[in-house]
Design brief:
The complex is a heterodimer of chains A (114) and B (111). Chain A is mainly β. Helices cover 0% and strands 53% of the residues of chain A. Chain B has no helices and 11 strands. The chains are: A mainly beta (114), B mainly beta (111).
Chain lengths: 114, 111
């Protein structure tokens, strides 16, 4: 069974802090994704990575960066946290290729920026 | 610009009846459509998908219908069970790994 683990369930940070959200998957998936979920807006893609050290911007990359140094780990970085980044953050992974790609999600990290 | 829309934020259905969740999209180039289900404090899980070349796909109690001319898809759950209470997201892609999600519909099954 695929397991995607996000290191924190809840985080509270102050405005201006640098924030790291960590995600690890155990199924040797090539692709990894970071989404945020907000009421009325659904899930929006921030960044994704299709290989180690590779990354591609999603729909809302502003204010975020990512790091993928190892295949199983994908980190989301908020360089200077702001209150509008308060949200639920969801990491996902999948195999590469094919027309139907099923994402496997972690349980999410609820980040509050005060 | 929301390319995938779920216009009903919530839906309540009696246990045993049919639940119908709707989704509209704007881009006719979408290749596959998927439904995900999300319980509180958990990540979304894949439920069912349909190719743009089909108009129906069935899996047990779940059936997805696609109406390309109307750019509309729907998820039917029959019969509805209390464990179906969750938030449902429709999603679509262009035949690659990037999914575009809708805004979600919270389904509540009333015992």
């Amino acid at each position: 069974d695929v397991k995607v683990t996000q290191s924190s369930r809840y985080l509270v940070k102050r405005t201006g802090e640098k924030v790291f959200l960590e995600c690890v998957q155990d199924m040797d998936h090539e692709n990894m994704f970071w989404y945020r979920q907000d009421p009325g807006l659904g899930l929006r893609l921030i960044y994704f990575s299709y290989d180690v050290k590779m990354k591609e911007k999603g729909d809302i990359p502003e204010g975020y960066s990512v790091s993928r140094e190892k295949k199983e780990r994908f980190s989301l970085i908020l360089e200077s946290a702001s209150t509008n980044q308060t949200s639920m953050y969801l990491c996902a992974s999948s195999f590469k290729g094919g027309r139907v790609v099923t994402l496997h999600f972690g349980n999410g990290t609820r980040l509050t920026v005060t | 610009d929301q390319q995938v829309k779920q216009n009903s934020p919530s839906l309540s259905v009696q246990e045993g009846r049919i639940s119908i969740l709707n989704c509209d999209y704007t881009n006719s180039m979408f290749d596959y459509f998927l439904w995900y289900k999300k319980y509180p404090a958990e990540g979304p899980t894949f439920l069912i998908s349909i190719s743009s070349i089909k108009d129906k796909n069935e899996d047990g109690r779940f059936t997805v219908f696609l109406n390309k001319s109307a750019k509309h898809l729907s998820l039917h759950i029959v019969p509805s069970q209390p464990g179906d209470s969750a938030v449902y997201f429709c999603a679509s892609n262009f035949g690659n790994e990037k999914l575009t999600f809708g805004t979600g519909t919270r389904l509540t099954i009333i015992p």
